[in-house]
Amino acid sequence: MYHHVKKLMYTVKVDTPNVRFGNMLLEQFGGANGELAAAMQYTIQGWNCVDDLARRDLLLDIGTEELSHLEVVGALIRLHLKELKTNREAAEADPLVTIAGGGGVSLYNSQGNAWTADYLKITGELDVDLRSNIAAEARAKIVYERLLDHTDDPGTIDTLQFLMTREITHMKAFSAALESMEKPAFSIGFLNGGPGLSIGDIKGTEDQEARGKQDMGQKATTSPFAEALSQTMPSTNKPGSSNGEGHSNGSSKKAVAAKKK
Ligand SMILES: [Fe+2]
C-alpha cells in the first residue's frame, strides 16, 4: 500500500527557466529510460517476485523511490516550461505540451511519443530481471549525464546530480542482489545451449547444477540490501516544500564544480 507524503524527495529549484531544456527533460518523465518506466518495471517485477521476499522488498523499495523521482523530474520540468503558457515564442518550442497539455507534464517523451509498457523488461525470472534493472539504471545514469552536459543552470544541475547519484546507488544495489544469488555468470534458465555452446563450455562459468538452488524458502521480511540503498545519498538532500517546488540553498556551486571536473 502507498502513502502520499506531501513533499518532494528533493527540493527543486530553477534559476533560469529554459523551455527547450524542459522539453529535453521529458525524456526522463515519459521516455524509454525515464523514471516512470523504472518505477513500473521494478514495481511489477516486485509484485511478481513471491518466492524471494528479501529481493522483492528491494524491487519495491527502489520502484517506489523511482516514482518519487518522477515527481521530482515533473516539478523540474514544470518550472522550465512555465513560460509556455504566456509566451508565444516559448510556446513554439513545444506546441504539443503548450496546446494539448496546457504547459504541464504528461506521459510523453521529448519527441511527443506516448509512454508505453513496451519500455518495460519483465521476465518473471529474478536474475534476468535484475540484469535488466542494472542495465536500466546504467541507461538512466547516462541520460542524466547528457542532460547535465546541456544545462548551466545551477538549480537544475543540483537536482539532476541528485537523481543521477541515486541511479548509481540503485545500480549497485541491484548488482549486489544479483551477486548474492551466487549464480554462474552465464547461467540463465535451466537449459544448456546447443552442442559446443553449453553453459559449462563458456569460459568462466561454473557448475550449472548450482543454478536454481537458491531462492527457495526465504522468509525475510526486510531487505538485507537496505544498507546498500541508503548509501551515497547526497548530504545536500533536503525534503522539498509542501507545494512541491520549493527553494533550496543546496550545493549548486559544488554541483557546478563537480560538473567541471
Ligand atoms: Fe530514478
Topology:
Blueprint: H1 19-25, H2 27-30, H3 35-48, H4 53-81, H5 88-91, H6 95-100, H7 126-149, H8 154-180, H9 226-230, H10 252-260
The structure holds fe (ii) ion (FE2).
Fe (ii) ion is lined by residues 35, 38, 66, 69, 140, 163, 166-167.
What keywords describe this structure?
261 residues, 0% strand, binds fe (ii) ion, elongated, 10 helices, Ferritin
Précis, in short:
The chain has 261 residues and is an all-alpha fold. The protein has helices spanning 19-25, 27-30, 35-48, 53-81, 88-91, 95-100, 126-149, 154-180, 226-230, 252-260.
Q: Could you walk me through the main structural features you see in this protein, from its secondary elements to its overall organization?
A:
With 261 residues, this protein is an all-alpha fold. It has a domain of 178 residues: Ferritin, core subunit, four-helix bundle (Ferritin, Up-down Bundle), CATH 1.20.1260.10. It is built from ten helices and no strands. It starts with 18 loop residues before the first helix and ends with a helix. The chain binds fe (ii) ion. Fe (ii) ion binds next to α3, α4 and α8.
Order of helices and strands: HHHHHHHHHH
Overall geometry comes to elongated
Structural class: mainly alpha
Low-confidence blocks of residues = 208-221, 235-256
Number of helices: 10
CATH architecture label of the domain at 8-185? Up-down Bundle
Task: Estimate the mean pLDDT confidence.
Answer: 83
What share of residues are in beta strands? under 5%
CATH superfamily of the domain at 8-185: Ferritin, core subunit, four-helix bundle
